[in-house]
Amino acid sequence: MQGCRAAILVLLLVASSPCLAHHGRAPHYDETKAVHLEGVVAKFDFINPHAFLYIDVVDAEGNKEAWSCEMASRTVLARNGVTAESFTPGAKITIDGVAARNKATGCAFRTAYFADGSTLEDSLLFAPTRASEAEIPADRQSIVGVWTIKQFLASRYYGVLTEAGEQASAAFDPIKDDPAIHCDPGSPVRFWINVNEPFEIKREPDRVVINHRFMDSQRIVHLDAVPPADAPRGTMGYSTGRFEGDALVVTTDHFVAGAIEPRRGIMHTENLKLTERLEVNAEGELEITLTIDDPAFFAEPYTMRELFVRSRWDPEPFDCKPGYQQ
């Protein structure tokens, strides 16, 4: 590599990246087109919900171009040793990524190659914090504690949609309509399965409080109660619950119509009823079973299950920055 000279190549990928697919980047990036950049670091925005690396390159005709490459969230990067100083302005760098659909000089980050020979690979950033690194309570069957999702690839299938559900999904624009743009987790489903962000479950006398590092969001489960007549509606609904032994059974309604899983374009009406069961299985994992019941958009109730492992709490706030950029 000489000076800021850059070679920009667009190639056909033989396989799509699970990282891009899971984070719902498909509407923003074309997974069939790879980008190879050689240039210098202009700026590094170390922010949530996604960090951005800005690179100055020079094309084959000698024209300077400013590229931006979207990365994982600041919290995911930080837990893997990345800091605000990891990309030094003016430093030579080579980037492999995936081409943006709506910006000629945008990409989704895959791998960085530094001048000292070290690399940073996006695919290695999303493993959950191992349970051995977490604080294990005396009562191992208790759901109380800090957890994170066990596997990188959460559910992709959400049952059979009705014709109205299909139409609502087709009308959803993830570039403009994703609640995450406004720092809203969007639904209890996405609240649970956002990759690698820990959440903490606390039990109080008359409620269970669940704090999630994703969007610094919170859910309150009112124990042995019924929703008041004037319970507010919202994207997260109003939750009531009861304990069956060590298991917590939660019922949530009082939603506003929206996206139950924005990354998949799965929509729901205001009449959605969500039932969740939280319990620790024989392997010491938190098993959450969710049943989605919304007859207008789902042909029949759909049940899904996700597994979580005990984790460390991340004390650094998510501090989401509203808006989306490429």
Summarize the structure.
By secondary structure, the chain is mostly beta strands. It has helices at residues 18-22, 74-79, 163-171, 174-177, 188-193; strands at 9-12, 29-45, 52-58, 64-70, 92-100, 106-114, 119-121, 145-149, 199-204, 207-212, 217-223, 238-244, 247-253, 258-261, 266-268, 273-280, 286-293, 302-310.
Structure description:
By secondary structure, this protein is mainly beta. The chain folds into 2 domains: 9-124, Nucleic acid-binding proteins (OB fold (Dihydrolipoamide Acetyltransferase, E2P), Beta Barrel); 131-310, Calycin beta-barrel core domain (Lipocalin, Beta Barrel), CATH 2.40.128. The chain contains 5 helices and 18 strands. It has helices at residues 18-22, 74-79, 163-171, 174-177, 188-193; strands at residues 9-12, 29-45, 52-58, 64-70, 92-100, 106-114, 119-121, 145-149, 199-204, 207-212, 217-223, 238-244, 247-253, 258-261, 266-268, 273-280, 286-293, 302-310. A 9-stranded mixed β-barrel has the order 8-9-10-11-12-13-16-17-18. The chain has a 5-stranded mixed β-barrel with strand order 2-3-4-6-5. Strands 14-15 form a two-stranded antiparallel ribbon. The radius of gyration is 21 Å and the shape is globular. The two termini are 26 Å apart.
- The level of helicity is under 10%
> What is the annotated CATH architecture of the largest domain?
Beta Barrel
Mean pLDDT: 87
Alpha-carbon Rg, integer: 21 Å
Low-confidence stretches: 1-23
Please state roughly what percent of the residues sit in beta strands, choosing from under 5%, 5-15%, 15-25%, 25-35%, 35-45% or over 45%.
35-45%
Kindly provide the name of the CATH class of the largest domain.
Answer: Mainly Beta
Head-to-tail CA distance between termini: 26 Å
Shape: globular
Strand order within the widest sheet? 8-9-10-11-12-13-16-17-18
CATH topology of the largest domain: Lipocalin
* Assigned CATH superfamily of the largest domain: Calycin beta-barrel core domain
Secondary-structure element string: EHEEEHEEEEHHHEEEEEEEEEE
* Count of structural domains: 2
